[in-house]
Design a protein that fits this description.
Length: 382
């Protein structure tokens, strides 16, 4: 199995530009999905932005006006631009990034060419595009770094909760993971599971271990790598078990984080965990051939450690390492409901329903009776 590095988005071409996730703003559709008229080479599509909405868009780096095209049979609405389509906004031609294949097409972001009041999108085609739909919508685009900070503050699963969860799922995990046996102090064989310290996405060492709320396995993935993986085409599926693992259901595992902090040495890539959640590092196989005193330093490094002997990581230090937090008010409400029993004032209602979406009502002064009426309206030729 090879690391899935190709699935990660390339670093931004502008070093000052951060990788960002994209979520639709609830009630934020400006132009409802529409088709082009058959054999119409040039069409104009008008929308309006209130001055207050335009000002908010320009002030907040995490909000954008997204225009995209997708195949009408694609329920995921993945961006897919026919080769003949060209787009300009307010007479400014825009460059469509199509990449190497149809999975690397990117939507257009329009706010930098928009103005308060009337705006016009002009679409030019040289071939029929009746199989595709176009949509203009407001999207929330928080930086990966700000999302990491939010998840650390709101979705850290305390070590004691992690241990309870691992113990509860242990028998089923051990049966499916291919287990080893360890002799307990009473001489009775105990089943132990092997857990990799490497991320299944990149095969690099995990920095911040996470899982989905519904995941039953002990194995974690690296949170930042998982967020990066979902920057462009957010499938939000666990790379270990393939279950849905949406942003609001992610959990940062403090117990596994403590293990990673305790084993800073790169000579260990795995640990074994027993039913009591005691763990010990597994040496890389080449080291097993080294002859050493049974009571020497190498043997001591392999000693089993119980949860009570562990030093748990300092969350605030990790948040500080991620850099300065978002400007107050600039990122909107927190999209991460806090864990039960965890301190915090997050609002679980910010991500309603089964998918990831951002609740922008109130920030944009949308009329309740018509979500797009106050921001945009009208399609087709003016």
């Amino acid at each position: 199995m090879k690391p899935n590095l190709s699935a990660l988005p390339p670093p931004p071409s502008n070093p000052n530009e951060e990788l960002r996730l994209t979520f639709p703003v609830r009630d934020g559709v400006v132009l409802e999905p529409f088709r082009l008229e058959h054999n119409l080479a040039v069409s104009n599509h008008v929308f309006h932005l209130r001055p207050s909405v335009h000002q908010t868009l320009m002030w907040r780096s995490d909000l954008e006006l997204q225009f995209k095209c997708y195949h009408h049979e694609d329920r995921q609405m993945n961006t897919n631009w026919p080769a003949s389509v060209q787009v300009s906004v307010n007479a400014t031609p825009l460059t469509i990034e199509r990449g190497d294949n149809k999975t690397s097409h990117k939507p257009l972001h329009l706010k930098h060419v928009c103005q308060p009041g009337r705006n016009t999108i002009q679409i030019t085609v040289t071939a029929c595009c009746c199989s595709h739909l176009f949509v203009l919508q407001l999207v929330h685009r928080p930086s990966v770094r700000s999302v990491l900070q939010g998840l650390l503050k709101k979705r850290l699963l305390p070590a004691e909760h992690c241990i309870t969860k691992i113990k509860r799922n242990f028998s089923s995990v051990a049966a499916s993971a291919g287990n080893t046996t360890l002799n307990g102090e009473d001489g009775v064989e105990q089943t132990a599971i092997k857990v990799s310290l490497k991320c299944p996405i990149t095969f690099r060492r995990i920095q911040l271990p996470a899982r989905g709320h519904d995941c039953k396995h002990v194995q974690c993935f690296d949170l930042e790598s998982y967020l990066q993986l979902n920057c462009e085409r957010g499938t939000w599926r666990c790379p270990v078990c393939n279950k849905t693992a949406l942003l609001e259901g992610l959990e940062v595992d403090q117990y596994m984080w403590g293990i990673l902090n305790a084993i800073q040495n790169s000579e260990f890539e795995e640990v074994t965990i027993d039913p009591t959640c005691s763990w010990r590092p597994v040496p890389i196989k080449s080291e097993l051939h080294i002859k050493e005193d049974p009571d020497g330093p190498l043997a001591k490094r392999f000693k089993t450690m119980s949860p009570s002997q562990m030093t748990m990581p300092n969350v605030m230090e990790m948040i500080a390492q991620l850099g300065p937090g978002p400007v107050p008010g600039a990122q909107g409400p927190s999209p991460y409901p806090p864990h039960p029993g965890q301190h915090g004032s997050g609002n679980g209602g910010d991500y309603p329903g089964p998918g990831n979406s951002y609740h922008g009502q109130g920030n944009f002064d949308f009329p309740h009776h018509n979500p797009s009426g106050g921001v945009g309206g009208g399609g087709g030729p003016p």
